[in-house]
Amino acid sequence: MSGEQPTRPRIVRPDQIPGAEALPSALPGAEEEAPDAGELLRGVLVDERYEPGMIMLDRQPVPVAPDGLPAYVPETDPTPLRGGFIYLSVVALICGTIVISALNLGARWSEAIVKIPLLIGSVPLFITMGEAALRIARSVRAWWPIDRGRALFRATWVAMIAALASVVAAALWLALSA
Questions:
Q1: At 44, is the secondary structure helix, strand, or coil?
Q2: pLDDT per residue over 57-75, tens digit each?
Q3: Cα-based distances in Å from 94 to 34, 103, 120, 163
Q4: What is the C-alpha radius of gyration for the chain, rounded to an integer number of angstroms?
Q5: DSSP state of 59
Q6: What HEC string does 135-150 produce?
Q7: What three-state secondary structure class fits 111?
Q8: CA distances from 11 to 5, 16, 18 (A)
Q9: Per residue in 87-137, pLDDT tens?
Q10: Residues near 103 by Cβ (< 8 Å), separated by ≥ 6?
């Protein structure tokens, strides 16, 4: 038994199947030539908002929520940072972790372990907070004619970002004046 070759499935042409003449010879539209994939992609990628390396945004129809309103308002105008938002946020996160950890371990505001990461991390943090506030403020304007409750909810987020930016500015002032 160990010397037997495994049997391979036999390939059968459609004309070898009994009754195959009753089957359609081809699917509808099979005689048409398929479109060139390169042409299809060029048509998709011709978008003035597209930049090399940028993730393409889905431009699909907006689904409707159970309350009858759109589930979201699509963003039509990208904000200035686009992909850089994440990288700046990571720098701010790492610097903030260092500052908070140092303060929790007993460092003073005047020490270099607090001042240097605070100075380095505050710049990208302010930039990303401004970017987020811009995006949310645009959504407030987009939601206002559709659903004012959702627009006001987003407006509170803009106010929260402003409040958090003032807390970071106070911490920065405190560290620099110490």
A1: helix
A2: 555 666 777 777 777 777 7
A3: 51, 14, 10, 21
A4: 30
A5: -
A6: HHHHHHHHHCCCCHHH
A7: coil
A8: 17, 10, 15
A9: 999 999 999 999 999 999 999 999 999 999 999 999 999 999 999 999 999
A10: 109, 114
